[in-house]
Amino acid sequence: MLRLARASLAAHETVVFAPRDVTRPTGTAEEFAVTPANFDTTEATGGYALTWRAHGLAYGIRTAVDGDVAAGHTVVLNASRTVLAEARRRYAEVAVILVDAPPDVRAARLSTRGREEALAVADRLARIPGTFSNGDADVVIYNTGHPDDSAARLVQAILQLPTADGSS
């Protein structure tokens, strides 16, 4: 869904999709694979704006995102609900677009990715981060249908967000 949304918004120079680092052996278009040692060093030297740990991995959004925010861009992050309070402390304007799906849909998608064993998928589905609820989101997208439809809803939600400079 993020890949499709990024492609749809490629011509919008004020919309930036911030990649994340993850301590996974291979990366994707949305994330860079880093070693745990490299992650720890970057974190210790202040190289991450936001970090979290989940599913036996460490995730981080690099501080380069701060330049995009300062430039008035709409920055899209794929981050954990557990860092929402920190994001709100760090940035003046934060809008939360929650992408949700029923557990059976999430389980099928996680299994299809093939990155985790069945037990790890079950652990991931059982994880309930903090006290976050759907009511904490500005927009909720139920990602249950075709990926193109969910991506279109995400693009619409992103384009309706005010930018850091106050425009829409």
Describe the fold and architecture.
The chain has 168 residues and is α/β, with parallel strands linked by helices. The chain has one domain (2-160): 2-Layer Sandwich (Guanylate Kinase phosphate binding domain). The protein is built from 7 helices and 8 strands. Strands 3-2-5-4 form a 4-stranded mixed beta sheet. A two-stranded parallel sheet has the order 1-6. A hairpin with a 2-residue loop joins strand 4 and strand 5. The two termini are 22 Å apart. The model has no long low-confidence stretch (mean pLDDT 83).
Protein topology:
Blueprint: H1 2-8, E1 15-17, E2 20-22, E3 31-33, H2 36-44, E4 48-54, E5 57-62, H3 65-70, E6 74-76, H4 84-90, E7 97-100, H5 103-113, H6 118-126, E8 139-142, H7 147-160
Parallel strand pairs: 1-6, 2-3, 7-8
Antiparallel strand pairs: 2-5, 4-5
CATH architecture grouping: 2-Layer Sandwich
Cα shape: globular
Cα distance spanning the termini = 22 Å
Name the structural class.
alpha/beta
Give the strand line-up of the largest sheet: 3-2-5-4
Strand content: 15-25%
Question: What labels describe this entry?
Answer:
168 residues, alpha/beta, Guanylate Kinase phosphate binding domain, two-stranded parallel ribbon, 38% helix, 20% strand
